[in-house]
Amino acid sequence: xxxxxxxxxxxxxxxxxxxxxxxxxxxxxxxxxxxxxxxxxxxxxxxxxxxxxxxxxxxxxxxxxxxxxxxxxxxxxxxxxxxxxxxxxxxxxxxxxxxxxxxxxxxxxxxxxxxxxxxxxxxxxxxxxxxxxxxxxxxxxxxxxxxxxxxxxxxxxxxxxxxxxxxxxxxxxxxxxxxxxxxxxxxxxxxxxxxxxxxxxxxxxxxxxxxxxxxxxxxxxxxxxxxxxxxxxxxxxxxxxxxxxxxxxxxxxxxxxxxxxxxxxxxxxxxxxxxxxxxxxxxxxxxxxxxxxxxxxxxxxxxxxxxxxxxxxxxxxxxxxxxxxxxxxxxxxxxxxxxxxxxxxxxxxxxxxxxxxxxxxxxxxxxxxxxxxxxxxxxxxxxxxxxxxxxxxxxxxxxxxxxxxxxxxxxxxxxxxxxxxxxxxxxxxxxxxxxxxxxxxxxxxxxxxxxxxxxxxx
Amino acid sequence: xxxxxxxxxxxxxxxxxxxxxxxxxxxxxxxxxxxxxxxxxxxxxxxxxxxxxxxxxxxxxxxxxxxxxxxxxxxxxxxxxxxxxxxxxxxxxxxxxxxxxxxxxxxxxxxxxxxxxxxxxxxxxxxxxxxxxxxxxxx
Lengths: 458, 139
Hints:
heterodimer; A: 458 residues; alpha+beta; eight-stranded antiparallel beta sheet; 15 helices; 27% strand; B: 139 residues; four-stranded antiparallel beta sheet; 2 helices; 15% helix
């Protein structure tokens, strides 16, 4: 079901985003049912929701990724809508389709939006057909010979990508021709196992790039708005670590071009609810290229909220109820500079190895311009089954340097013991002169803090 | 406890949880680990089941819901109930069903004994691991 009024929402997620959604629902007078795995029964979101319903064992494959179980949980508890948050089932078209079949409202885009934009090959073609620049790339490559031919045409280094991949998953960087065979075979095996869709394509790798993305939102009344851009260039192994808004390297003309390109893509598919159009900004050629669209609320949405003053999660709910968005484009303005650090339970000294365990001390920063979105507290046992995000520390100040100083002060005040965290690593970034001058790129963390730490990213 | 060992401890506990292992002892230089599985853990949100029923009576075992769904005490609406108070059940007997949308999953007893009490209402939503029956175990 696309839209109807509702008063009770089932939240199919966990951690900080579950709490974020519960709070938005509560502000709007909606009841909340939180779906929890056995490992999350005693979590802060579970204690905050009006009711919890245990959907399965700790492993996500048996709980948070079970579409039928979540639908059944919603029907059995009288929920009329489901909010998927981010991750888990947020970009699986099966969930909105199942909601439709069972008369539930999915607080997000239509299944067809997720399906279309989830196919990176289709999305690239659509953007190119609309006149939006895409990174020079290939069509689907099925054999090593095709990969060799495409790589020679594009020029090394190249990226091998999965048509169904997202957020850096299923991606392989091929620095030179001698590495192509091993990378191609590895990628083919990995994507088959990870996505059940083994289609691969290739793109030229832009080494001096920034990752810039535009927040968009569409409602059932034909309104489609942008909420300015975010700079998410600071990444480790294609996983975002620090996000900022706005992106300070864009001129007003470039910014407008980016917004128009984002809205053109979203308009083409009559996009509904919250989405993000991602671009790569080539810092050498001073050109931007469409990268992909994420059809969900993003982890980093708070930096946009901080500079625009718009509660994006509440807008998602308004849209799902069939209401018109509360803003017109000319009523949305960006003011100040916001930075977000993703604080994770990882050990930067040990290759960012995940560090689940009990939080013994938790002293959070506070003060003017500081926001902390978290589900953690002293005594909380960080489970090993999920991603290691402890919370998002967001600081807003009038200018970028003031925001960096504010973030450094907030990080210095943030004291967590019992587990290792990435707080000391973020302090190094905030003090780095290159970062402070804005001389960054998507591989800046790996180049600056070499040797590249071993281990899996979180 | 060193934080780098936490993940391994969680993994050990997970192996225990998923297996039939009731108790696990491990000792290496500078590290000692001892865990005992609690076979009658009290799940939250149990309407109508007093803690006394679960903990104080010797030999009483609980049959838990193996998944979330709608509890059915018979396979078809008009059919006879599969299990009720006073009835003897074997480990492999099916004592109910969990319906999840179009799919129906059997609930095996897993215990041999006499059913003392039915803890969940027919046709209502049951959560994962919610008690369905209390059984006086025959050893």
